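== Polypeptide entry ==
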Amino acid sequence: MLHNLSIQNYALIDQLTINFSDGLSIITGETGSGKSILLGALGLVLGNRADLASLKNNEIKCVVEAEFNIQAYVLQDFFEKKDLDYEDTTIIRREILPSGKSRAFVNDTPVTLSVLGELKSKLIDIHSQHQTLQLSDVLFQFSVIDALAKNDKRIASFKRGLKKYNTLVKELLLLKENQENETQQYEYNLHLYKELEEANFQLNEQSELEEKLDLLNNVEDIKVSLSEAIQLTTNEEIGIQGLLHNLENSLQKISTFSKKYEEISTRVSSVKIELDDVITELENENENVEFNPNELEQINDRLQLLYSLQKKHQVDTLEGLNEIKEQLEEKVGSVENATEIIDKKQEEINGVAKKLDEVAVLISNARNKAIPKLKKELEFLLSELGMPNARFSITLEPSETYLSNGKDELKFLFSANKGGNFGELKKVASGGELSRIMLSVKKILSENIKLPTIIFDEIDTGVSGEVSNKIANIMQQMSQYMQVMAITHLPQIASKGNSHYKVYKKEVKGITTTNLKQLDTEERVVEIAEMLSGKDISESALIHAKELLN
């Protein structure tokens, strides 16, 4: 509920602070006194667009601040989602600077106008002739029925399921699209994959083949070098092996004379053993080295195959070629397994659809139970408001597709006259009738869901005294469940308020300003008497005013 409204330098207001109470608050004042300015300021602090024309004095900033008690509105999730500090008593401030720039704050945290706009719908409902157009909106009509049907949890469950269903359907369409595209490339991809598979290459194969090729291409040089090495080591006259043997014998003769000689002799013996082993390997390698033209041709052919495959797939290594092979295998497999994958996705969709259908049936059943009650209450309230022949025809038809709130199509028809044909509200109901229908709807909603503060902006225009009494009674009943404010010209409605505020203009030093004050009991008597008889208040008007207040 709105606790406090503070306005500085806005339109005709210099400085104004007013506290509001719960229950039914009445706002009255002469035509042109500035009641619309109050609504404008409230709209401004809740996100409406503004410009420098809003400033009373263009040299200082305009500030509008509203304090709300939001404890009953369950807005913690909204505040968390918007990254705002939640407080049970929340303060919203809007500033218009002389430069024309605008700033907005929620609990001192800067916010955008779009966030304020979202918050506005949760805090204030300004009910006017214009708002009655909402009655013809199917989603609004559904919201009224669902409020009576207590469908909020069922619809929340349905929406979660519908979101999952739509996601799965998109995934299925993408799978089918990919299958179609990949099927067109399937034969080519399959050919490429089989070509790589038949090559049957190993990751280290290329380096080994290149090493063998290098050996075969240089076999003559290798043979000469090996022969020279064997000659140098085994020649009887100058061979290293013979010389090392003589060295070993010489050292062995003196090894017993000193540990130092013994160590040197041992080391030479180790060198001789190692050299003997090397000579054996040289002789073996020399015997094995031979030129094999068939092997050379096979290696060349194999390497040419590997090189051509790498060039074809634009990679430089067998590792890169192997990655291409794996990708082709996945593409080919995805086409070959696509039917199975698509069938599984369709099965998952069918499962979600089954649950959606079950929830939709629960929603529809609850609506069908609530519709007779809604119809009865609307017709009763409208009869009280001077429309005794008002009738509604509210029916549900099953939809073949999923809608945002179930699987029902709604026909919400109205007839104002006895024996008249039913038609759509916007086509058969007048502005005054729509206004009274909306009042009745809001009255019913107030008893079934927690509504924000509602402001009735002169919806009683053009109604009779008796009907105005009924309107006042409905507002009073609504105020038991929520904060209700009514801007009115009718004394019958003004007398029903728990509190009464008067908007008036005052001229000081040739400057006109708009002011608002809360009236005490005596001031209310005078205000209502003036509403009854005009500026020249008669004694009978004062008596009548006291009777209305009592």
User: Anything to note?
Assistant: The longest strand covers residues 391-403. The two ends are 27 Å apart (CA to CA). The CA atoms of residues 24 and 459 lie 15 Å apart.
